[in-house]
Design a protein that fits this description.
Strand order of the largest sheet: 7-6-5-4-3-2-1-9-8
Number of strands: 9
CATH class: Alpha Beta
Largest sheet: 9 strands, parallel
CATH topology: TIM Barrel
Length: 290
C-alpha cells in the first residue's frame, strides 16, 4: 500500500531505516535484528543502497526477504548517482515485480574520493526533482518519497533556496517527505510551517537518530548538516567521563525519547528512526510511546 494512505490509517506511527549488509554472511544477523524490530509494528521500513548503486542488488534481495520473512511494507531508496534512465527503469521494474508500492527518490551524494565532475556523476538526473519526475512519468502508481533538510542541505545557498527545491520536488510528483536527522524539534516544526506557507501540504516525517556513543556523534557531524544542541553535547560528554559508553547510551535513549514524545505531542504524524541496523536502542527509545 502507498505510504500516504498508510499514514491515514495509522497515526501516530514509527517507521525504520535499514541498510543492507554488503556481505551475505552478515544477512542472518541483520534479518534477526529486523525481526526484533518488528515488535514496534513499523508502518514501513526503508532500505538504502551504497553510492553509485554499489549494493543495489543486495537492496533488492534484502527487500524481498524483509517482505517475506517479516511482513514489512518496504520502501527502497533510489539515487541518481551514475544512474542512466535504463538502469533506473530496470530497478523500478524489479521492485514492482516484488509488489513494492513506494520508493524514496534521492539525488545521492558524491562517492568518497570522487574526482570527476558533477556533469558525469549526475548526467541523467542532475537533481532529485529530475528523478522524481522520471519516476512519476513511468510509474504513476508508485508513491514517491523525498528527503527534506530541516536545517537546509549543506550545498544550499540559503534556507529559502532549499525550501524552493522542496517545492520543486513536490511539483514534480513527490508524495511525502522524510527529513534528515536533527536534534532540536523546533527546527522540524518550523520547517513544516514554512513548507505549508509555500503550499506544500504532503506529509513530512521527522527523521530521528538516537546517539549511542561519542563515536556515533562524530559520525553524525561528518555525514550531515545537523546542529547539536549544547545541552546534549554537555550531557554526553559528562556521561562519558563518569560512566563511559554505557552512560552515553542511556543519555542517547533519554534524549531520543524526549524528541519522539515532543514530536508526537506536537502533531507530527509519526517518527522515522535511523536504526543503524541495531534493535536494542530503537526498542528502548520507543518503549511505551505508541
Amino acid at each position: 500500500m502507498q505510504i500516504p494512505q498508510l499514514i491515514k490509517t495509522q497515526s501516530p506511527f514509527v517507521s525504520l531505516e535499514f541498510f543492507p549488509p554488503k556481505k551475505q554472511e552478515d544477512w542472518p544477523v541483520f534479518l534477526e535484528t529486523a525481526r526484533e524490530l518488528g515488535r514496534l509494528r513499523p508502518l514501513f521500513v526503508s532500505v538504502t543502497y551504497g553510492a553509485g548503486g554499489s549494493t543495489q542488488s543486495n537492496t533488492l534481495e534484502i527487500c524481498e526477504r524483509l517482505i517475506n520473512t517479516c511482513g514489512f511494507e518496504v520502501m527502497p531508496h533510489l539515487t541518481g548517482v551514475t544512474a542512466s534512465r535504463e538502469k533506473v527503469d530496470g530497478f523500478l521494474a524489479a521492485i514492482r515485480t516484488l509488489g513494492i508500492d513506494n520508493i524514496l527518490a534521492l539525488r545521492g551524494d558524491r562517492p568518497t574520493g570522487y574526482t570527476g565532475t558533477d556533469a558525469d556523476l549526475f548526467a541523467a538526473f542532475p537533481h532529485a526533482s529530475d528523478l522524481v519526475a522520471h519516476i512519476r512519468r513511468r510509474h504513476p502508481d508508485l508513491a514517491i518519497g523525498v528527503a527534506g533538510f530541516t536545517e537546509a542541505h549543506a550545498e544550499a545557498p540559503s534556507f529559502a533556496a532549499d525550501l524552493a527545491v522542496m517545492q520543486r520536488k513536490v511539483a514534480c510528483g513527490a508524495d511525502f517527505v522524510i527529513t534528515q536527522l536533527y536534534f532540536d524539534n523546533r527546527v522540524y516544526f518550523d520547517y513544516v510551517d514554512r513548507l505549508r506557507a509555500l503550499g506544500v501540504t504532503v506529509p513530512v516525517l521527522p527523521g530521528i537518530l538516537p546517539i549511542r556513543s561519542l563515536a556515533s556523534l562524530r559520525f553524525v557531524l561528518e555525514m550531515c548538516n545537523a546542529r547539536i544542541p549544547g545541552r546534549l553535547i554537555n550531557a554526553l560528554t559528562k556521561a562519558h567521563e563518569q560512566g563511559g559508553n554505557a552512560a552515553v547510551y542511556d543519555i542517547g535513549v533519554a534524549y531520543a525519547r524526549e524528541q519522539v514524545r515532543g514530536l508526537l505531542d506536537g502533531g507530527a504524524p509519526g517518527v522515522h528512526l535511523y536504526t543503524l541496523n541495531k534493535a536494542d536502542m530503537c526498542l528502548a527509545v520507543m518503549d511505551g510511546l505508541l
